Amino acid sequence: METPDTSAGIVRGGRSAAGVLATVVLVASACADPPFKPASPYDGAFTTPASVVGFPDTFTSVGQSAQLRLVTDERFNHVPRRWLVQRIDSAPCPTGCGYFSMDMHTGVLIATPTPYVRRWEIQVQMGAQWYRDTVTLRQLPTVFYMGCGQYDCGVSISHDTPLGNAIHFVDLYDANNVRLHYQDYTAKAAGATLTSRDTSIVGFVDGEWRSRFKDGTTWIVREQFGKVDSGLWRVRQQVFPPKLTCPLTASVSDTVRVAVAHADSAGVPMIKPVTTSYALTRLGDPPPAPRPISQDGSFVPTEPGDWRVQANAVHATGVRWSACVVAVP
């Protein structure tokens, strides 16, 4: 029997074993060095998806609150959250933007009054990671109350003149019955329907509310937000300083007559009686040195000088006066 070449077999067998060993070592090295993934939320490289939930897109009432939560992998529920809020609008607020009251630890958010619509950013920190969302803060009116209620507003104005903002004098309230603070009356009039019980006293003319041509009172009825309220409005023609017409010059012993006309601030002649009284002085006389004058506004200068006539108009809405000077050479 032929004897095998064992030395050759040994050589061949040795090369085969080394090759197998090398293969095993390479596989073991690949399995022992995977990519590193941070597992601690306090690691600066930590990331995990999460979202802020629990609040509406817009807070519309003062005192409206929300309990915010950060929803993420339940493995991190034990990690404390830190909540913050900041305004992200750059426009200034002359009367204050309002704000959110935020509990840093519990995530409770409460709205405060604001006359401006503003956007805010909600921030929450979990470990090394920050999450953000936005919310809008504004007050929406849901109810109103007439400024005059059941009382006489006592508006004293000229006849046939615009009432302006006076007719829109109401207070608006949000859903929590907190009064709104608006910059102008445009918002207060939005969606409101106004009617007058007596349009001869207060009426809607050429797109605006105007007083009419007589004194009196009438109810203004307002409908808005499904509510109806009314106020009693008074129109009373208000006396303005009288208009005097007098001659520029006169002679000694002439009869000087001063004409007086009474009107309201719009120049409309007064329709209610006005009591007029006169006073006459000569400029340069030591006070008090009144001179006699007829109560119809006429007088006779007795000596040269500048004669001053003052007319006083007495009316239920006030006392006004004007004066003119007559030169007597």
Characterization of this structure:
The protein is mainly beta and 329 residues long. The protein has helices spanning 6-31, 186-189; strands at 51-53, 58-59, 65-67, 69-71, 81-87, 100-102, 108-111, 118-126, 129-137, 143-146, 156-157, 170-173, 193-196, 202-205, 208-211, 216-224, 227-237, 243-245, 256-257, 259-261, 275-282, 290-291, 298-299, 305-315, 318-328. The strands form nine sheets. Strands 2-9-8-5 form a four-stranded mixed β-sheet, with no helix packed on it. A four-stranded mixed β-sheet has the order 11-17-16-13, with no helix packed on it. Strands 22-21-24-25 form a four-stranded antiparallel β-sheet, with no helix packed on it. The termini are far apart.
Would you summarize the structure shown here?
By secondary structure, this protein is mainly beta.
Topology:
Layout: H1 6-31, E1 51-53, E2 58-59, E3 65-67, E4 69-71, E5 81-87, E6 100-102, E7 108-111, E8 118-126, E9 129-137, E10 143-146, E11 156-157, E12 170-173, H2 186-189, E13 193-196, E14 202-205, E15 208-211, E16 216-224, E17 227-237, E18 243-245, E19 256-257, E20 259-261, E21 275-282, E22 290-291, E23 298-299, E24 305-315, E25 318-328
Parallel strand pairs: 2-9, 11-17
Antiparallel strand pairs: 1-4, 3-7, 5-8, 6-7, 8-9, 10-12, 13-16, 14-15, 16-17, 18-20, 19-23, 21-22, 21-24, 24-25
